Amino acid sequence: MATQMIEKYEKYWTIIHSSVGVAAVLDPRFKMKLVEYYFNRIYGEEDAIFEIERVHNYCKELLKEYEVKLNNGGIASSCQVESTM
User: Fold this and answer.
1) SS3 for 85?
2) What's this model's pTM, rounded to 2 decimal places?
3) DSSP labels for 38-72?
């Protein structure tokens, strides 16, 4: 039973940690430094690089999706979103 629980936890953790990372990045107190700090502690330095890049790419994808919705939604075209990541 414990093995099944661990498998489920690992499955859901890989899905949710990107969302938690994005929340930390959007928090003006922490930004990407918090993600880098904790991911290094959780995954080790070698694996953390991959996971940090994954959160970074997820943020970029969300920004692109937001830009597409902003441009297609009929909102004034003079409003532009810049990527400052």
Assistant:
1) coil
2) 0.63
3) HHHHHHHHHHHHHHHHHHHHHHHHHHHHHHHHHHH
Q: Residue with structure tokens 């990107």?
A: 18
C-alpha distance across the termini of the chain, in Å: 42
Query: What residues contact residue 26 under an 8 Å CB cut-off, 6+ apart?
Result: none
DSSP label of 27: S
User: Taking each helix axis from N to C terminus, what angle separates 31-72 and 2-26, rounded to the nearest 10 degrees?
Assistant: 80
- In order along its 85 residues, the chain shows pLDDT tens digits of 888 888 887 777 766 777 788 888 888 888 888 889 988 998 898 889 998 998 899 889 988 999 998 888 755 444 555 555 4
Helix, coil or strand: residue 75: coil
